[in-house]
Structure formats: C-alpha cells, structure tokens
Write a structure and sequence with these properties.
This protein is an alpha/beta fold and 228 residues long. It has seven helices and ten strands. A six-stranded mixed beta sheet has the order 6-7-8-3-9-10, with helices on both faces. GO terms for molecular function: ATP binding; ATP hydrolysis activity.
Amino acid sequence: MPAENIVEVHHLKKSVGQGEHELSILTGVELVVKPAQTIALIGESGSGKSTLLAILAGLDDGTDGEVNLLGQPLHRMDEEARAQLRARQVGFVFQSFMLIPTLNALENVELPALLRGESSAESRAKAKAQLEALGLGKRLDHLPAQLSGGEQQRVALARAFNGQPAVLFADEPTGNLDRHTGDKIADLLFSMNRDYATTLILVTHDPQLAARCDRRLRLVDGTLVEEA
C-alpha cells in the first residue's frame, strides 16, 4: 500500500562544524508532501536548499529530527536500506546531468534498471522506449559528449523516470540550460508528473519554474516558509 504522505519531516536540524566553528544550516524544518504534488524549494544562495533536498532523498543526514520518505524512517535506516529504497522508488535529476561519460545514452538510461536486477532485455526495451518518448530515438548510441546540454538533460530525465519512481528530486534541473531549452525540460518534468503521478520536489532559482509548482517553500533562516 502506498504511503499516505510522500515526505514527512519533523524538527529537522542540520549543522556543520563543532564548538565555536559550528554553523547551523537548518534550524527546525517541518514539511509534509502529498502524492503527486509539485514542490519548489526556493531561497537565497547558501540558504540550504540543496542540503535539504539531499536529506529528503536520503543522500545526507540531519543533525536532529525525523525524516520519513515513502513511509520509511530515513533517520533510522542504514545506507544499504536507503539505497534499496532509492533504487526502487526514487528518481534524481541534477543541474550537472551526472551522466556516465563512457556509456551511451541508452546505457545510461538502462543502468539503474540493471542495478535493480531487471533482465538486460527488459531494461533495454524500457530505456529505449523512454528515450524515444523524449525525442532521442536517433541518439541512443551517442555518448554524453556528443549530445547538447538539452539532450543530456533529457537523457537524465529518461534515466530518472525509467522505473516510474514515486518521487523525483531535481536540483536546479534547468540551471545549466538556456531559457528556451530550460523551458522544454520544465515542460517534460511537469508532463511526466502528470503522466506518472510522480511527486516532484525541485530546487530552483528560477521564479518562472517555481511558479509552475503547486507549492513554493522558501528557506529563511533555516526554516521553511510557504508562499502564496
């Protein structure tokens, strides 16, 4: 049975350093995210948006508090258990694309499915269909260096959605792209949100992208403030 809430966060704190050198990044974050919502995390540079996103995805730990992802208590899970959860139900898209340079587009998209233990024939068919749906059917054999920035980000999107994740985390997904290409990638993100009912949680400095989300949450002094 799917979790009632995709994300539940209570009293989350994050600090780095010790003693007089300790720096508080998150001072008491509270958050509940419902299935299929689109959430924009916004705020000044250095406010902790990417840190919060990493903690929500189980890629980093808070100093204190509770973080539940898809009904699972990340704050009580070891890295192996978190990795299994991410492999089954979580997708990621990053500003820097994070494609493996020695693998072609099809192999990059296929890789997470292989890591989940799916057969090569099954995973390849899914990866090919996903790339074709994103207009990259003629780019299957191209290495990342042979693709434009927009094409690389589409490969990253195909990889993220290959397993139809329950939640997608995106950190500045259009930050390295020009406005026209960025708008196309944003269109793809929101169309996939609708088609797959995937919850989307993204960090962005782009007010136009943030305005397209159901909710806009601003990090101010280590806490979240919901904007109208």
